[in-house]
Amino acid sequence: MPSYEPPASRCLVGVARCDVTPPVGIYHRMWGAATHDRSTGVHRPLTATTFWLQKLQSGTDLPHVVIGLDHCLLWPTEMDRLLESISLRAAVPRESIVVFFSHTHGAGLMGLERSHLPGGELIEFYLEELAERLSQSVVKARDRKTPATIVYGTGHCDLATNRDFYDDARGHYVCGFNHTGVSDDTVVVGRITNDTGHIIATLVNYACHPTTLAWKNTLISPDYPGAMREVIETATGAPCLFIQGASGDIGPREGFVGDPAVADRNGRQLGYAALSTLEGLPHVGQQYTYVGPVVSGATLGVWDYQPQAAKRTQQVEQWADDLGAVALRYRADLPTKAELLADRSRWQAEEQSAATANDAVRSEHAHAMVERATRGLTRTGSLPEGDSYPYPLIVWRMGDAIWVVLDGEHYNLLQRVLRERFPQVTLVIGTIANGSKVWYLPDAASFGLGLYQEEVSILERGCLEKVINAATAAIQRLLG
C-alpha cells in the first residue's frame, strides 16, 4: 500500500541549556552608528543550547557537538581559544565541536581588541566564563545522551526579506528592506523525541539576519530568536536550538530599530510558523499508510498510521560525514595592513576634529568609518598566506537529513540552489559555524554593485558558486 513517512534521523541525543548573558555594563557597541559603549540592561537573557549527537552504534565515529549560541560571532583569535578550551575542559575532540552563532547583533561585540574601551575591561573575564559554561553544558549533554528520533518538517515564514535595496535618490545601494528582492522563506524544524515518547528538544533552521535591534538599542538581547524560542518552548516544554541559515542578503522586514518589542514581534512570527509545522508532525515510528476506499456520498480514500517497517529503521540510523576543503581565492584588491592602519588614523583624526568643533553628525560618521577600518584589520589579520583560503566544507548525513555546516555569511542563493537541486532531501543549512573567517560570500551577480557585503568580503567573485558546487558534490556522495 502507498505510504508517507516523514524524514527522520535516529541517533543518540543529549541536550543541555545554559545562560550566557554578559554582565550589564560590558562593551556593547556593535554598530558604527551607535553612540553608547556600555550595555545598560538586558532585554532577554542570552542562552546556549547544546546537542550531543552520536551514532547509535558509534564505533570510531566522532560525535557532533552542536552549540547554538546567542552571539553575533567571535573573531578568529577568540574563536580558536573558545574551541580549544571547550575541547580540553570537556574532553571532546575539537573537530567534533560546531558553534552555530544565532548572529544576534544585540549581544555586544566580544573582541579583545576592544579591552581598552569603556566596558571592554569585562570582555576577557566574560570570555573565560563563557568557555567554562559551554564546557559544562557539553558534559551535561554527553551525560544525558539517550536513543532518540529527530522527525523533520518544513514550513514557511515571510519574516525574512531581501535587504539589498537600491536608493534611487542617492544612486547607490543600502542595506535595508528590498520588497522586490527574492528570499527563501523555508523554515526547517526538528522534533526530538526519546524512546519513552517525551520531547527532549526541538530545532529551528531559518535564514534571517537578527538585525531587528540596531544602533539605538542599548540592551543585551538575543533579538528575534529569543521570543521565537519562548513560543516553541512554552508549547513543547523542551529547549529549542536555533540555526542561522544563509542570510547574507536577508533580514527582517522591520529592522534597524531600538524597540525590543519589535524584536519580540518578529520572533513570535517565526515561532508561530515553526510551531505550526511542529504540530503537524506525525508520531515517531509510524508511517501514514493508505488502507483503502470507503464508499460514502463520495468514494473516500482512507489513510491511517501504522508501525514503520524494519527496513525503515535502518534508513533513519544512517550516519556519515563528508569533510573537505575548497580553495577560494582572495580578492586581488584586498587592502594591506598598512593601508587599513592609515585609513583608520585618518578617520580617527577626522573624528577628533569633529568632536572639537562640536559637529555631532560629522563625528558619528567618522566614528563609523573608524569602526570599518578596525574590522578590516581584524578581517585580514589572521588569514593564511598565499592567494587562496582553504575553506572547510563539513556535510553530515544523519538518517534522511543532510546538515551543511558553513563558516561565514553566505548569500541566500546558496540554500535556494541546494534546495532546488535536492528537492526531496531535508537540508539543515547552518552558517556562521565556528565564526566567520571568510566574512561575506555574495553571489557573482552582486559584485560590482557597490554593496556593503562586497566591500567587506575577502574572497573574489564566484567563490559562493564554488562552495555551492562543492556542497552539491558532497551531498551527492553522502546520498550514494
Helix run count = 10
Computed over alpha carbons, the radius of gyration is 23 Å
The count of β-strands is 23
Tally of domains? 2
Shape: globular
**What structural class should be given to the helix and strand makeup?**
alpha+beta
Low-pLDDT residue spans: none
What do you see in this structure?
- The protein is of the alpha+beta class and 480 residues long.
- The chain is built from ten helices and 23 strands.
- The strands form seven sheets. The chain has an eight-stranded mixed beta sheet, sandwiched between helices. A four-stranded mixed beta sheet has the order 18-19-20-22, covered by helices on one side. Strands 1-16-17 form a three-stranded antiparallel beta sheet, with no helix packed on it.
- Strand 11 and strand 12 form a beta hairpin.
- The longest helix has 22 residues, at 360-381.
List the helices and strands and how they pair.
Elements: E1 3-4, E2 8-19, E3 41-42, E4 47-54, E5 64-69, H1 76-90, E6 97-101, H2 123-143, E7 146-156, E8 160-162, E9 164-167, E10 172-175, E11 186-194, E12 199-206, E13 219-220, H3 224-236, E14 240-244, E15 250-252, H4 260-279, E16 286-295, E17 299-307, H5 310-316, E18 319-329, H6 337-356, H7 360-381, E19 388-398, E20 401-405, E21 409-410, H8 413-421, E22 426-430, E23 440-441, H9 452-455, H10 463-479
Parallel strand pairs: 3-13, 5-6, 12-14, 20-22, 21-23
Antiparallel strand pairs: 1-16, 2-4, 2-7, 4-5, 7-11, 8-15, 9-10, 11-12, 16-17, 18-19, 19-20
